[in-house]
Amino acid sequence: MTDLPGSLLIETPSVNRPNDLGQSAPRAYAPGITWSSDVPSAFGFHRLYGFQDNGAWFNKPMIGLGQASGTMTLSFAAPVAGVGGFFNYAQSLGAPIGDAPTIAIYDAAHHLLDSTVLNFDTGRADLSGYFFGFDVGNALISSFEMSGAYIGMSDLRVLAADTTPAQVPEPATLVLAGGALMVMRGMSRRQRRLPNA
Predict the structure, then answer these.
(1) pLDDT digits 0-9 by tens, 148-191
(2) Helix or strand or coil: residue 187?
(3) CB 113 within 8 Å of CB 141
(4) What CA–CA distance (Å, rounded) separates 26 from 132?
(5) Which of 44, 112, 106 is nearest to 75 (CA)?
(6) Which segments constitute the Ice-binding protein C-terminal domain (predicted)?
(7) Which residues does residue 33 pair with via DSSP β-bridges, in sequence order?
(8) How many CA atoms lie within 13 A of 109 on its CB side?
(9) In this predicted model, what pLDDT tens digit does every residue of 85-96 receive, in sequence order?
(10) CA dist., res. 24 & res. 10, Å (int)
């Protein structure tokens, strides 16, 4: 999906250290959200990060896969119903560099819930990209994985579970509604019995 209505925007933390591009150990992305990568990658990076023919990001805190293959993961302490982000990836001559850029969501048992391969061309525009995400309707998503093509993401969006309980009418309301229906039914019968003028 290219929109996630009702979601909460969680900006990528900004880190300003020389080793921003060499991260892989788990890091706190936000309360209840942990980032990790299976290859050295960018966490909180906000300097120039190139995506070849898809332009570049700069002055934009982001997470970015440090190789053409590998996976970054955002893990949620409490499962969520929807997740997405603003993405870009490295491509040259219209083709991804390395593995196809893929985003996927998993449940707590690491069963795949959904995935999609990204395929877009920014026309070499800097600070560009597109929003992609998933909404499964219930709090089932425990992890969000991004892989291939030096994929980068910023502006994480999370849709929490709908915790609003269904409204159940109180007994007094049901009695009033039932009484009103009986009166309306009686009036309808009475109107049918009246002769036509």
Answers:
(1) 999 999 999 999 975 444 444 445 444 445 554 454 455 445 44
(2) helix
(3) yes
(4) 23
(5) 106
(6) 167-190
(7) 30, 76
(8) 2
(9) 999 999 999 899
(10) 20
CA distance 19 to 47: 12
Closest by CA to 147, choosing from 118, 114, 111, is 118
CA distance 176 to 153: 54
In angstroms, the CA 39 to CA 36 distance is: 9
**123: its two tokens:** 């026309």
CB within 8 A of 55, min separation 6: which ones?
88, 122, 123, 124, 125, 126, 127, 128
Residues in the chain: 197
- Alpha helices (H) in 68-170, listed in sequence order: none
Q: Rounded distance, CA 3 to CA 134, Å?
A: 9
129 contact partners, CB below 8 Å, separation of at least 6 = 54, 57, 86, 87, 88, 120, 122, 152
Residue found under tokens 């959200």? 33
Looking at the domain that runs over 8-159, which CATH code has it been given?
Answer: 2.60.120
Question: Scanning the structure block, which residue is given the tokens 């933390």?
Answer: 13
Q: What is the number of other CB atoms lying within 10 angstroms of the CB of residue 169?
A: 10
Residue type (1 letter), 183: V
Rounded distance, CA 168 to CA 164, Å?
Answer: 12
